[in-house]
Amino acid sequence: MDLRLLRYFVAVAEERHVGRAAARLQMTQPPLSRAIKQLETEFGATLLHRSSIGVTLTDAGTMLYVEARTLLGRSDQVRSRVAAAAGPATLTIGILPDNAEQTGNRLAAAFRRRHPDVEVQIRETDFSDPTTGLRAGLVDVALTRAPFDDTGISTYVLRSDAVGVVLRTDDPLAHRDTLHVRDLADRRWFQLPEGTDPIWRAYWSGTTLNGELREGPTVRTVHECMQAVLWNSSIGLTPLAHALPEGLTAVLLADLPPSRLVVAWNNTNTNPLIGSFTRIAVATHRSPAPANADTATSPPSGSGSRHGQLPHRQTRR
């Protein structure tokens, strides 16, 4: 029996209204209605009397509500006892400097609600390692940006952001609506360090994988990037979703694909918290309202992983 469907039914039974239950579960009404009909089909009985003002339980629905509450309570006890037997759980999250806000607000709060006893460690890296330590086994999961060499790594796209050229506000090109790479051929671009992932390095340098590297100062952090523009009038790229300090502006670079904010994990990592973290991250990016990982069973429109699905809660690829 699917415990998720039982949780849905309990919410409807307690709210006496499908719409209110959907809001409580932080999902839309149509899939909730389909879930209730699926239960009715499985049990071969009508569980709810439906009307224009809400729903009431049938005798069969009342019996299912009582049994479902018992089963769900028992499942929560089992989860707690297994977690206690396994010992303290930990999750190490790698982040890039420009994604630090992703762990500081709704995502962190949602994860704490779902896993209050998990010890979370944060590892922030500079721009020389877009995997933030995944490939070296230093983190379990990463909030980072693609593209980079994802051999052995799975990714799930949370959001795609247009990319712009960072310029000083007194730059002759600062008031253009859009720019192209060819418009910047004579400019100094800030560069990423030697040894940086070549796919990542080419993208943020506005060139091809095997293209010639541009001249300019080497930077490792967002702050160094901004200072290179302010002090040296060099240029660089940034997702347009990011705020810029006074004196700088960003102009859309029309011929560069969007920058994809992703959750990434190593395919060989068996930490069962990776799947839960990924689902919570998807949920917090799908809706502006706080999200519960249990409701995030399908990806948001327009997003997807390299493998076309989210990681399972307990099984790693």
Written description of the protein model:
With 317 residues, the protein is α/β, with parallel strands linked by helices. It has 3 domains: 3-86, Arc Repressor Mutant, subunit A (Orthogonal Bundle), CATH 1.10.10.10; 90-160 and 259-295, Periplasmic binding protein-like II (D-Maltodextrin-Binding Protein, domain 2); 163-253, D-Maltodextrin-Binding Protein, domain 2, CATH 3.40.190. It has 8 helices and 11 strands. It has helices at residues 3-15, 18-25, 29-43, 59-86, 106-114, 198-204, 222-232, 273-286, and strands spanning 48-51, 54-57, 90-95, 119-124, 141-146, 153-161, 163-168, 178-179, 236-239, 248-253, 259-266. The strands form 3 sheets. The protein has a 5-stranded mixed sheet, with helices on one face. Strands 8-10-7-9 form a 4-stranded mixed sheet. A two-stranded antiparallel ribbon has the order 1-2. Helix 1 crosses helix 2, helix 1 (3-15) packs across helix 3 (29-43) and helix 5 (106-114) packs across helix 8 (273-286). It starts with a helix and ends in a 31-residue tail after the last helix. The relative contact order is 0.14. Residues 289-308 and 312-317 have low confidence and may be disordered.
**Tell me, what's the shape?**
elongated
Number of helices: 8
Helix proportion range: 25-40%
Name of the top-level CATH class of the largest domain: Alpha Beta
CATH topology title of the largest domain = D-Maltodextrin-Binding Protein, domain 2
User: Which H/E pattern describes the elements?
Assistant: HHHEEHEHEEEEEHHEEEH
CATH homology superfamily name of the largest domain: Periplasmic binding protein-like II
Q: From the structure provided, what is the oligomeric state, counting identical versus distinct chains?
A: single chain
Please describe the biggest sheet, giving its number of strands, its sense, and whether it closes into a barrel. Answer: 5 strands, mixed
In whole angstroms, how far apart are the ends?
25 Å
Strand order of the largest sheet: 4-3-5-11-6
As for the number of domains, it is 3
- Gyration radius (Cα, Å) is 24 Å
The CATH architecture of the largest domain = 3-Layer(aba) Sandwich
Please count the beta strands (DSSP E, at least 2 residues each): 11
| Overall average residue pLDDT | 82
Low-pLDDT residue spans: 289-308, 312-317
Report the sheet-strand fraction: 15-25%
* Class computed from helices, strands and strand pairing: alpha/beta
